[in-house]
Design brief:
The chain is α+β, with helices and mostly antiparallel strands. It is about 60% helix and about 10% strand.
């Protein structure tokens, strides 16, 4: 074992590291092996085709055979006759032996020349095949080199580069297209991350600025009254609550972006009832009319995230509503899907703004003119929906307001729902 290890290391060092070199070597070895097999087959066929004895005229062969037979008979009748006294027989046998020896020498010479020329041709063609293999492998691997160079250059500052490989739809073209798609997704992810970080920094800086201003203004007064101190404390408390809510929303959004590992049973209708009860204070404050049509909408997923999604939709419908308006909540199952729909009255939402509703930090002031909310509610909804393979769609209500529909895969009829 100790002797084999250095030998293996030596083989690894001597083995070509470049794919192009290995392909060229493989082409040459395969050509040499196939050529050797073809050469051996050709040599065997030629050797079996060349006669070992000279081909004679059938009539002349019969006469020669008769003469040899007569010579043998004469030798048998006169065994004491000396050989010089039978010149015809001696000449005939000498001629036959010479013809056979010459035929064998000619056959062997032809086979030797065939073998030599075949080996020289095989060696020359093996070298030529290695050269052609080097050229062909270089052309075949050119897209791989382009992909490697682009991947080496790709960074946060150069994610806009694309291979845009042209040519037939082969494996390398599919690899290049997949790499372009990956770069595009990375570019979008980095862009969204930079925008998210910038918006989060701005949004978190706002409550801190409010707190600093309230404290500085109060402390700048020579003799602040008790009421002024209470007002300052209340303003700081509201800013802290806003920052805390935003941090919680950011953590929820990050958890939703990471996907979910658990698969628990959940009924969207039950979650909708709980969300409406939790928003009772806002509903009562605005005097909203809530209409519900809740039927079982059973699905599986992360229970906390899905309840957060339903809660955010209900809170969004209450927050962006008019005093004395309405909210309609529906849940049910059909066609193998669990659906949750919520619609609300409120300011008119232009169709052009619908695609941006689910972007982070798209505050209500940008689309409805109201100033409440951190702009993360619908972004969390979309992220949770994406993690659960859900379809989240929004459209404007003609009289003003928004309608949001969430469609998730329902629980199969034969699936074990545990204690439920």
């Amino acid at each position: 074992m100790t002797r084999a290890a250095p030998r293996l290391r030596w083989i690894r060092r001597c083995w070509p590291q470049k794919v192009r070199t290995r392909l060229t070597l493989l082409y040459a070895v395969l050509f040499f092996a196939a050529g050797s097999a073809l050469l051996g087959l050709t040599y065997a066929l030629v050797a079996s085709s060349l006669p070992a004895q000279p081909a004679a005229n059938p009539k002349a062969g019969q006469e020669q055979a008769k003469l040899l037979q007569q010579c043998d008979q004469e030798r048998a009748r006169a065994p004491t006759v000396p050989k010089p006294q039978l010149p015809a027989c001696q000449q005939l046998k000498a001629f036959s032996a010479g013809a056979s020896s010459g035929s064998q020498a000619l056959r062997q010479r032809a086979l030797n020349e065939l073998l030599v020329f075949s080996l020289v041709g095989l060696g020359a063609m093996t070298v030529i095949s290695a050269g052609l293999g080097w050229v062909v492998s270089g052309r075949v691997l050119r897209p791989v080199r382009v992909i490697t160079e682009t991947a080496r250059r790709a960074s946060e500052q150069h994610l806009g580069e694309r291979l845009a490989l042209t040519g037939p739809r082969d494996e390398l073209k599919e690899l290049a297209d997949t790499f372009d798609s990956m770069l595009e997704r990375l570019d979008q992810a980095f862009t969204a991350q930079r925008r998210f970080v910038a918006n989060a920094s701005h949004e978190l800086r706002t409550p801190l600025t409010v707190m600093r201003t309230a404290i500085d203004v109060t402390l700048a007064k020579p003799h602040p009254t008790e009421q002024q101190l209470k007002d300052m404390a209340a303003r700081v408390r509201r800013s802290i609550d806003r920052a805390e809510a935003m941090i919680g929303a950011l953590l929820t959004l990050a958890a939703a972006d990471q996907g979910h590992d658990s698969s628990e049973f959940i009924d969207l209708a039950t979650s909708a009832e709980d969300a409406i009860d939790a928003a009772a204070a806002g509903i009562e404050r605005l005097g909203l009319r809530v209409d519900t049509e809740l039927e079982p909408a059973e699905t599986t997923g992360d229970q906390l995230l899905l309840e957060q999604m339903i809660g955010n939709l209900v809170d969004n419908a209450v927050l962006h509503n008019n005093a004395g308006g309405w909210v309609r909540v529906e849940a049910g199952s059909s066609d193998g899907h669990a659906r949750f729909t919520i619609a609300n009255s409120g300011p008119m939402v232009p169709e052009a703004l619908l695609p941006s509703l689910f972007e982070p930090f798209r505050r209500a002031t940008e689309r409805t003119g109201t100033g409440d909310g951190a702009g993360l509610g619908l972004a969390i909804v979309r992220s949770i929906g994406t993690a659960h393979a859900a379809d989240v769609a929004a459209r404007s209500v003609p009289a003003g307001g928004l309608l949001v529909t969430v469609t998730l895969p329902s629980v199969p009829a034969d699936e074990d729902l545990g204690p439920y």
